[in-house]
């Protein structure tokens, strides 16, 4: 099962980035941003299941990633993918980190998000 810790380890190993925790009221919610520039390529959040329209009690970790409208359309029909929470719903997707989406798919999409948000003219590290 992909966990928040696995996502953070992958982001550090592949892109050299660590999360930034920007919100005092949500100290466990963090952003992944490019080292050069301020663009976010991922947002990790822990939210009540009800707020996301997911049945059950408690909370769930999600990862918001940029994917573009074409890919977004195909993802939203699959279990584990939701319209982006607090991001542009036309270009971003929320992925549940509760085992419903295979880890390799999450990491592949994390790479796509990184590439889509990379400052223009920069090469991948």
**Number of distinct helices:** 3
CATH architecture: Alpha-Beta Complex
What's the number of structural domains? 1
Structural Rg:
14 Å
Query: What is the name of the CATH class?
Result: Alpha Beta
Helix vs. strand class: alpha+beta
Q: What series of H and E elements makes up the topology?
A: HEEEHEEH
Shape: globular
Q: Report how far the terminal alpha carbons are from each other.
A: 27 Å
Global mean pLDDT: 90
Low-confidence stretches: none
CATH topology: Aspartate Aminotransferase, domain 1
- Give the % helix: 25-40%
| Number of E-type strands | 5
Task: Give your account of this protein's structure.
With 125 residues, the protein is α+β, with helices and mostly antiparallel strands. The protein contains 3 helices and 5 strands; from the N terminus they run αβββαββα. Strands 1-2-3-5-4 form a 5-stranded antiparallel β-sheet. Helix 1 crosses helix 3. The two termini are 27 Å apart. The mean pLDDT is 90.
Strands, helices and their partners?
Layout: H1 4-15, E1 30-33, E2 40-48, E3 59-66, H2 69-75, E4 81-83, E5 92-96, H3 103-117
Antiparallel strand pairs: 1-2, 2-3, 3-5, 4-5
TL;DR?
This protein is α+β, with helices and mostly antiparallel strands and 125 residues long.
